[in-house]
Design brief:
This protein is mainly alpha-helical and 226 residues long. The protein has two domains: 11-78, Orthogonal Bundle (Arc Repressor Mutant, subunit A); 83-225, Up-down Bundle (Four Helix Bundle (Hemerythrin (Met), subunit A)). The protein is built from nine helices and three strands, in the order H-E-H-H-E-E-H-H-H-H-H-H. The protein has helices spanning 16-29, 41-48, 52-65, 83-107, 110-128, 132-149, 153-176, 181-199, 203-221, and strands spanning 38-39, 68-71, 75-78. Helix 5 (110-128) runs antiparallel to helix 6 and helix 6 (132-149) packs antiparallel against helix 7 (153-176). The protein is globular, with a radius of gyration of 18 Å.
Length: 226
């Protein structure tokens, strides 16, 4: 999938570990490393031309952000998930982002709603150009913005970690059963409706629609994990 989010800032102001973390993260995002794959420090250090300690520090950053997991005495792996973990993850996403949505709808300005609308327009443009992965990427931007608009620092942090895990699962989806043009079009129509409900302050309906969008993503993903 295309990359448009940078968690560790630009390289000019980033530490070596942050730069390495960003490089590894981008490799994961494009499928160079897949869920469940071991990330060997020595191999990465050689490939990225940095010290093994720098790679270790970069992997710690990725572990904190939810991209990788460290197993004692077995090394570091790109995070993978069981079906139960996926169900739990999407339930947490529903709960936390619904709370964020409540706060957003109390303070959202016309400018905020315009930003959300533009993201959906970008997603539709990408879809019509046949760039379905980029279209799905834009949807992640939509959810990220909901978190940021909440104005709650801890909520933003929790949602970022959840979104990172969901992104890993979206990569699995793209590899095993990519979204179709028709399914993406139907999805975008619902996101447009969500913004419309937000604009008229219909929280309960907006919350129900947000939860439906997340749940249908979960339901369509689970069979791909068998």
């Amino acid at each position: 999938m295309a990359n448009s989010r940078h968690e560790y800032g630009n390289e000019a102001g980033a530490t070596r570990a942050e730069i390495v973390a960003e490089q590894i993260r981008q490799a994961i995002r494009v499928g160079a490393y897949v869920s469940g794959q071991r990330l060997v420090e020595l191999t990465l250090a050689s490939k990225l031309n940095v010290s093994q300690n720098t790679v270790r520090d970069g992997l710690r950053l990725l572990e904190t952000a939810g991209w990788v997991v460290k197993h004692a005495r077995h090394g570091v792996y790109v995070r993978s998930f069981t079906r139960d973990e996926v169900s739990e993850l999407y339930a947490l996403w529903q709960a936390v982002e619904s709370l964020a949505l409540k706060w957003v709808m109390k303070t959202a300005t016309r400018k905020d709603l315009t930003q959300l609308t533009r993201i959906i327009q970008t997603a539709r443009k990408d879809m019509l150009e046949g760039e379905l992965e980029e279209s799905s990427e834009a949807i992640f931007e939509f959810h990220n913005l909901i978190g940021k608009m909440s104005g709650k620092a801890q909520t933003v942090e929790i949602l970022e970690s959840l979104h990172n895990r969901i992104y890993l699962l979206e990569i699995v989806r793209q590899m095993r059963a990519p979204r179709s043009l028709n399914s993406q079009e139907a999805r975008l129509l619902l996101y447009e409706k969500l913004v419309s409900l937000m604009s008229v302050s219909h929280f309960e309906e907006a919350k129900a629609l947000l939860e439906y969008l997340i749940q249908t993503d979960c339901d369509s993903l689970l069979p791909l994990l068998d």
